[in-house]
Write a structure and sequence with these properties.
There is one protein chain. By secondary structure, this protein is mostly beta strands. It is built from 3 helices and 16 strands. The chain has a single domain, classed as Porin (Beta Barrel), CATH 2.40.160.10. Keywords: Signal.
C-alpha cells in the first residue's frame, strides 16, 4: 500500500506537474519512560513502573508554483491523520485512511498558497495567538516528559470547534502579522461565535544576540467541558533571546477570562545552555486561577546530538495541580529522517 502510494505520487509529480516537489520525512523514537504512581491512582493502568517506548511518524510535504509565481503546497502528518480517523476505542481496524464522513475535520493536514500579498494557510494549523507567541520550553524529550501541569502550549482558543483554522499572514522585513478564524462546525443550529485571532511578531539580531518578540490576542465562544458556551478571550506576549555563547531564555505571559469565571494568568519561563553537542535546559510554568485552584510544574532535559539526525534525550517533569503531585521521566534516542 505505502510503496504503491509513493510510486504513483512520484509518477504524477514527474509527468503532469513537472514543477512540483513531493518529499517524505519522518521521525522515530525508542527508549524507556515512567511516572510516579500517583498519576495512575484512579486509572486501570500500570502503576508507573518503567516501560518501553516506541513511536514513528511520517510526514508528506508537497510544494509547487504557478506560472505567475504563486507558491502552493500541502503537508500531511500521517500520525495525526491516523489518530483523527480512529473510532472512540482508538481502533483503526487495520485501515490507514478510514473515512470520517466529515470533510471539515482533516486533522494532520495543512494546505497553503503564498504570494506577493501574503500567505493563506488552512487546516490543522495555529491560530493568530499561537502563531505569534513562543512557548516557554527548550529542548526535547520522548513523550514530551519535560512538559507538566504548569506548561502552556499557547493554543489559546484553538480547537474550540473542529480545529480547522484559516490563517492569513504577511511579513515585511523582520516583522510579521497574522489574522485567523475557526468556525463553529456543530449541526445543532446554535451558531456559536467564531474564534478570531490576531498576532504580531518580530525576529532580529543585534550584537551577537538573536531575539524575538510576539504579541497575540484571540476571542470567541469558548466551550466548557460540560458543553456550556460563553464568550472568552486571551491576550499574551512572549520574549526570547539566544546568545552566541549558547545561553538562551524565553519568557511567556498570558491572561484569559470568560463569562463562566474561568479566569487565569499564566507565566512560563525557560532557560537553556548549549555547548558542542550538549544541550541542558529547564522550564517552569504556573497557572494562577481566580478560584484558587492553581497549577504549576517544572521540567528538565538533557540532549546530546549524535549527528546525522539522531539525538539522545533525557527528560523529567514534575507537576502540582493542587490535588495531585506527580512526575514523569524518559530516556532514549530520537531520530529525524
Amino acid at each position: 500500500m505505502e510503496k504503491f502510494l509513493l510510486a504513483s505520487t512520484a509518477l504524477v509529480a514527474s509527468t503532469t506537474f513537472a514543477f512540483a516537489e513531493v518529499n517524505v520525512s519522518g521521525t522515530a523514537e525508542m527508549g524507556v519512560f515512567g511516572a510516579s504512581s500517583d498519576i495512575f491512582a484512579d486509572e486501570d493502568e500500570n502503576d508507573g513502573d518503567l516501560q518501553f517506548h516506541t513511536d514513528v511518524d511520517v510526514i508528506f510535504t508537497m510544494a509547487g508554483e504557478t506560472d505567475a509565481g504563486l507558491a502552493f503546497g500541502a503537508e500531511v502528518d500521517l500520525d495525526d491523520v491516523i489518530n483523527i480517523n480512529r473510532d472512540d476505542e482508538g481502533d483503526d481496524d487495520g485501515v490507514i485512511f478510514p473515512a470520517t464522513g466529515d470533510d471539515s475535520d482533516d486533522g494532520g493536514i495543512v494546505i497553503f498558497v503564498d504570494g506577493a500579498y501574503g500567505r493563506l494557510t488552512m487546516g490543522d494549523t495555529d491560530g493568530g495567538f499561537d502563531w505569534a507567541l513562543e512557548e516557554a520550553i527548550i529542548g526535547g524529550s520522548l513523550r514530551d516528559d519535560h512538559e507538566h501541569a504548569g506548561y502552556n502550549g499557547n493554543a489559546g482558543l484553538d480547537g474550540t470547534y473542529d480545529g480547522q483554522i484559516a490563517r492569513y499572514e504577511y511579513a515585511f522585513g523582520d516583522f510579521g502579522v497574522a489574522a485567523s478564524a475557526e468556525l463553529d462546525d456543530d449541526d445543532d443550529g446554535d451558531g456559536d461565535d467564531p474564534i478570531l485571532g490576531l498576532g504580531a511578531r518580530y525576529n532580529g539580531e543585534f550584537a551577537g544576540v538573536t531575539f524575538g518578540a510576539g504579541l497575540g490576542y484571540q476571542t470567541g465562544a469558548d466551550v466548557a467541558d460540560d458543553g456550556e458556551s460563553a464568550d472568552g478571550s486571551i491576550v499574551g506576549a512572549s520574549l526570547s533571546a539566544k546568545m552566541d555563547n549558547g545561553i538562551q531564555g524565553i519568557i511567556n505571559y498570558s491572561h484569559y477570562d470568560d463569562d463562566l469565571g474561568g479566569d487565569y494568568d499564566h507565566l512560563g519561563l525557560a532557560i537553556g545552555y548549549e555547548w558542542d553537542a550538549f544541550l541542558i535546559a529547564a522550564n517552569y510554568g504556573t497557572f494562577d486561577y481566580d478560584d484558587g485552584e492553581d497549577e504549576d510544574g517544572y521540567g528538565v532535559v538533557v540532549n546530546y546530538d549524535l549527528g546525522g539526525g539522531a539525538q539522545l534525550q533525557a527528560g523529567y517533569g514534575h507537576s502540582d495541580d493542587g490535588d495531585d503531585d506527580f512526575s514523569t521521566y524518559s530516556f532514549g534516542i530520537a531520530m529525524a529522517f
